[in-house]
Specification:
The complex is a heterodimer. Chain A is mainly α. Chain A contains 5 helices and no strands. Chain B contains 5 helices and no strands. Classes of the chains: A mainly alpha, B mainly alpha.
Chain lengths: ~160, ~120
């Protein structure tokens, strides 16, 4: 797919990468902080991963929807807050390894509950964040192309490129 | 020191995720979130290897925290996965939404289990 001729997405790529790195560092430290505050007992229910993943999904839904639908074009909010912070704050690999370990040690009920609650609460949180961003806005038309939260523009023909 | 290590690893993980996602997504030429699927499955494999290996060889906890929690934790992402799935559902793209959910979980679990087993072997 040809990249949209708009100059904005590729403008100052080094600064955008720096924004992703700064957001990723902060998100990772915040996730580590939550994991120290909510220590998971060995093979117990991983509350800390669940909390960061659900909270991060809410925040990402809110931020990306605000950036794409409500705010005038911004250059650094998406790389810093969405790709960097929310991406670094939440984690998929930890969820998978925690599930796998519990499954291997016969903690099937804990693993099943953890998986279902993560998916249901994560999707609901992303939806709630998107809905929150639209509160008080004009009635939206049919949704356009899916805004890729990890895209700086130019890949999908979203509103950044138009 | 652990805080500095985590911050640097988290920064690298996030930039790595952007790079891999960007390349895979561009190559796929599709609106299906293949980029994040590749990131999350590959990260689950690597974290499995790290955790499995650490459990069997008594690797230092700090090293595992920086590489696992920092680098791979930041490389993979749950929020983009849930956002993409909801965005597909919102557009009534039921099959791609269910496919993203199922593929991410099934392939992610298989990758994590393989990683744990591989890590225990090495």
């Amino acid at each position: 797919m040809p990249v949209a001729p708009s100059a904005a997405p590729s403008e100052r790529p080094a600064l955008r990468v720096a924004a992703i790195a700064a957001g990723g560092a902060l998100g990772t430290l915040a996730r580590y902080g939550v994991s120290r505050a909510l220590i998971t007992p060995t093979l117990g229910f991983p509350w800390s991963t669940l909390v960061v993943n659900v909270a991060g999904s809410l925040l990402l839904g809110l931020i990306v929807t605000l950036v794409v639908e409500r705010w005038s074009p911004t250059r650094f909010v998406r790389p810093f807050a969405a790709i960097g912070f929310c991406g670094g704050f939440t984690t998929f690999s930890t969820l998978m390894v925690e599930l796998s370990q519990r499954g291997q040690h016969g903690r099937i009920a804990v693993a099943g509950l953890y998986l279902v609650v993560s998916l249901v609460a994560g999707l609901l949180a992303a939806f709630a964040g998107m809905a929150l961003a639209r509160v008080g806005g004009v009635a939206a038309g049919p949704p356009g192309a899916i805004p890729d939260p990890d895209d700086l523009g130019g890949i999908a023909p979203d509103r950044d490129g138009s | 020191m652990i805080i500095l290590g985590l911050a640097v690893a988290g920064a690298i993980g996030a930039v790595l995720r952007y790079g891999v996602d960007h390349r895979v997504q561009r190559r796929s030429g599709s609106s299906f979130p293949f980029g994040i699927l590749v990131v999350n499955v590959s990260g689950s494999l690597v974290l499995g290897v790290l955790v499995g290996s650490a459990a069997h060889h008594g690797v230092s906890g700090d090293w595992l925290t920086v590489a696992g929690t920092g680098l791979i934790g930041a490389y993979t992402t749950f929020s983009t996965f849930s956002f993409d799935t909801v965005a597909l559902l919102e557009r009534r793209q039921w099959a791609p939404a269910v496919a993203n959910l199922t593929l991410s979980v099934v392939a992610g679990l298989a990758a994590a289990a393989c990683g744990l087993a591989l890590g225990a072997l090495t």
